[in-house]
Amino acid sequence: MPVRIYRPAKTAMQSGKGNAKAWVLEFEPAAPKQADPLMGWLGSDDTTQQVRLKFATQDDAVAYAKRKGLEFEVQAEAVKKPCAAKNYADNFRYDKLEFGRF
User: Fold this and answer.
1) Number of domains forming the structure of the chain
2) Residue 91 placed within a domain
3) Neighbours of 60 (CB within 10 A)
4) Which residues constitute the domain of residue 21?
5) Residue 49, exposed/middle/buried by CB under 10 A (0-12, 13-18, 19+)?
6) How far is residue 84 from each of residues 24, 81, 87, 101, measured CA to CA in Å?
7) Is residue 102 situated within a structural domain?
8) What CATH number has the domain bearing residue 76?
9) Residue 101 falls within a domain, yes or no?
10) Closest Cα to residue 23, out of 73, 79, 81, 80?
11) In a domain, 6, yes or no
């Protein structure tokens, strides 16, 4: 049963990295989701899609996958490019006025 191990990115709704520190192990879907004939909701018989395991380090997650005999794929972390330093006062500099932006 294939799993993927990754570190989630921080969401746009948070300024800190609170939930982005832990490594997550998720099972890949074994069966596609199907629409329920009565209600039209999507569902599946595969209950492993609901399982998300969190680990403190990548090595812990890999060790768990090896111990359980799972096929795993480790996704590399996205490299964050630092922003250029900005100064709020530069928005009001008199020598940087642009005409026609009113």
Assistant:
1) 1
2) yes
3) 16
4) 2-96
5) middle
6) 31, 9, 10, 24
7) no
8) 3.30.160
9) no
10) 73
11) yes
Q: What is the pLDDT of residues 19-64, one digit of tens each?
A: 678 899 999 988 888 999 999 898 888 888 889 999 999 999 999 9
Can you say whether residue 58 is alpha, beta or left, with left for phi > 0 and alpha for psi between -120 and 50 degrees? alpha
End-to-end alpha-carbon separation of the chain, Å? 59
Cβ atoms of residues 88 and 20 within 8 Å = no
| pLDDT tens, residue by residue, 55-100 | 999 999 999 999 999 999 999 887 777 777 778 888 787 776 666 5
Spatial separation of the C-alpha atoms in residues 69 and 63, rounded to whole Å = 10
Helix (H, G, I), strand (E, B) or coil at 57: coil
Give the residue from 37, 59, 42 showing the smallest Cα distance to 25: 59
